From TrEMBL:
Protein known as: Alcohol dehydrogenase
Similarity-based family: Belongs to the zinc-containing alcohol dehydrogenase family.
Gene3D superfamilies to which the protein is assigned, alphabetical: Medium-chain alcohol dehydrogenases, catalytic domain (3.90.180.10)
InterPro entries assigned to the protein according to its UniProt record, in alphabetical order: ADH-like_C (IPR013149), ADH-like_N (IPR013154), ADH_Zn_CS (IPR002328), ER (IPR020843), GroES-like_sf (IPR011032), NAD(P)-bd_dom_sf (IPR036291), Zn_alcohol_dh (IPR050129)
CDD domains per the UniProt record, alphabetical: Zn_ADH6 (cd08260)
Keywords on record: Metal-binding, Oxidoreductase, Zinc
Keyword Metal-binding: yes
Domain of life: Bacteria
DNA damage among keywords: no
Enoyl reductase (ER) domain: residues covered: 10-340
Cofactor(s) recorded in Swiss-Prot or TrEMBL: Zn(2+)
Pfam families the record matches: ADH_N, ADH_zinc_N
Species of the source: Falsihalocynthiibacter arcticus
Gene Ontology molecular functions: oxidoreductase activity, acting on the CH-OH group of donors, NAD or NADP as acceptor; zinc ion binding
Length: 345
């Protein structure tokens, strides 16, 4: 099969013919229909993700069609499936309590095992997968494996956002844009924050209630003024110190900060304004991925028409363009995300 392989950090991925994956007994082999190019992939590409090593086939936001099923597989050939990027074992205490995204035995295609920057991918623990609705295009569905599911769990599983609350979203890349669209669907009022004016204009055109350019001054103060005292919930969607502190400082008393952006490499440890946490009686939540049992709540919201996730996708690209998309994350990016839909070019 054809795959894009990381051979050297900060260099073009190597387009190679590699062996087809072996089907796991408890899983399936998917022919990949679409795979998103995510900032988490970029962390691996630049060498800052501790688990991504040269030789890795990246890609963790994927959906596909079953072409082979193991003896203990739940799904069958020709099923169209979408996968979360965390594949939980299903048997440990974390899984049994419904917190599969914290499973200590999790499998991670795209980070440790071969991912979906390829024509085919082997997926173990297929009980984590969900049927892709006929009404949802594979291009949009690819984002459901990481960015959209992560945002959904951050808003509903962690912060418990309520209709009428103010939500601030710091960073309007893939996960930030997802968080904004889903928060609006939940009935929240949303302030988006970025340093790229084009992305702020894009968010406003999609229904954001207000926008703040973080390069223009005191972001937290601007949000407190817009919201009449501070956001109820603030989503940090970049994983850097400046936006994390702005997210905490923009909250009203008893507000909830959710760390969605991945702090890794040089951003793994930050200086945080804990006095703001103490004085405001704030709650800080971490979040990573989404328990697979929560797929129906998200898919039903999308299928009902309550939220349109198509603005998330800015462009469809061939596999050979994945390197260009990864390199683009070195600086501010344009609105929307890229999804690989052609694995032969």
């Amino acid at each position: 099969m054809r795959a894009a392989v990381l051979r050297e950090y900060n260099a073009d991925l190597s387009l190679e013919e590699v062996a087809d994956p072996t089907c796991p007994e408890d899983g399936v082999v998917l022919e990949v229909m679409a795979c998103g190019v995510c900032r988490s992939d970029w962390h691996g590409w630049v060498g800052e993700h501790p688990r991504v090593k040269p030789g890795q086939i990246m890609g963790h936001e994927y959906c596909g069609t079953v072409v082979e099923a193991g003896a203990r597989a739940k799904f069958a050939i020709a099923d169209r499936l979408v996968a979360p990027f965390i594949l939980a074992c299903g048997a440990c205490p974390s899984c049994q309590s419904g917190h599969q995204n914290t499973c200590p035995n999790q499998r991670l295609p795209g980070f440790i095992e071969p991912g979906a920057f390829a024509q085919y991918i082997a997926v173990p623990f297929d009980h984590n997968l969900a049927i892709l609705p006929d009404t949802l295009s594979p291009t949009v569905a690819a984002g459901l494996g990481c960015r959209v599911t992560t945002a959904w769990h951050a808003l509903t599983g962690r912060a418990a956002v309520q209709a009428g609350e103010w939500v601030a979203v710091h960073g309007t890349g893939g996960v930030g844009l997802s968080a904004f669209l889903l928060a609006k669907a939940l009935g929240a009022r949303v302030v988006v924050v970025d340093i790229v004016e084009e992305k702020l204009t894009h968010a406003l055109s999609l229904g954001a209630d207000a926008a703040v350019n973080a390069s223009a001054g005191d972001t937290a103060l601007a949000i407190r003024e817009i919201t009449g005292g501070g956001a109820h919930v603030s989503i940090e969607a970049l994983g850097i110190e400046a936006t994390t502190n702005a997210s905490i400082e923009c909250l009203r008393p008893l507000g909830r900060h959710v760390q969605v952006g991945m702090p890794v490499g040089h951003t793994a440890k930050m200086q945080i304004n804990m006095n703001a946490v103490y004085m405001g009686n704030l709650a800080l939540f971490g979040t990573r991925g989404m328990p697979s049992w929560r797929y129906p709540s998200l898919l039903s919201l999308i299928e009902s028409g309550a939220v349109d996730m198509t603005p998330l996708v800015a462009r469809e690209i061939p596999l050979s363009s994945a390197s260009d998309e990864l390199r683009a994350f070195n600086g501010p990016t344009a609105p929307g995300v890229a999804v690989i839909t052609d694995f032969t070019a």
